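User: Some background: our group keeps a shared notebook of sequences we're curious about, and every so often someone picks one and asks for a predicted structure to add to the entry. Today it's my turn. The entry only has the sequence so far, pasted here. Could you supply the structure so I can complete it?
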Amino acid sequence: MDHSGAGHSRQEGAAHCRDVRDVHIAPLGLAGILSTPKSARALVVFAHGSGSSRLSPRNTAVADAMNDRRIATLLFDLLTPSEETNRANVFDIPLLSDRLVDAVHWLGHQASIAHLPLGLFGASTGAAAALVAAAKLPRRIGAVVSRGGRPDLAGSALEKVEAPTLLIVGGADLEVIELNELALAHLHGPKALKIVPGASHLFPEPGALETVVEYAGEWFERYLAPTPSERSS
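Assistant: Of course. Here's the predicted structure to add to the notebook entry:
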């Protein structure tokens, strides 16, 4: 298996104008999809939730929208195929956060994108892993967004997160709203909680995921790729 990161590359159509590359993340060779739009101005790494993968349709939709905003994206499998057979690994936040840290380090060796401001997007348990990784890499992670996440599972790491953090929850996901409110209170940097009215945990309702995309895109643009006027303010 090729662990160097070199993989099959394919050019998308003019509508997206991006380079999409199948990669393997060192040191374990975890499978990933790196999508880099022309003149990318930032990069976001995705951490999927329990029972999902780099092929998550919801994260893929969000990643496509980020690409349209000239934000490069990396979706990758946080577990090896053998690890996926053990359900406990899906909820092993320290393990998952270590995989995110590995991915960030791997990206640092990809010359064409290593310079880009970096953010993390986490869903479900992946949100907790993203926050723990942000606490471990305060100088590298510039923003975090959680979609229907369990940031409370990040525990004591929440108070060490310096990156601006946005928590997005469905309005009908009442238990998760409460858990996000508790987590929000422990974050000390720039932070916000956005509720998508009427949306349930996976945001399948018409327009719900589009609202997530808008909130996430605005957050990453604000903190990773601000316009000159935003930068001066």
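Suggested note for the entry: The chain has a mean pLDDT of 90. Strands lie at 9-11, 18-25, 30-37, 42-47, 71-76, 118-123, 141-147, 165-170, 191-196.
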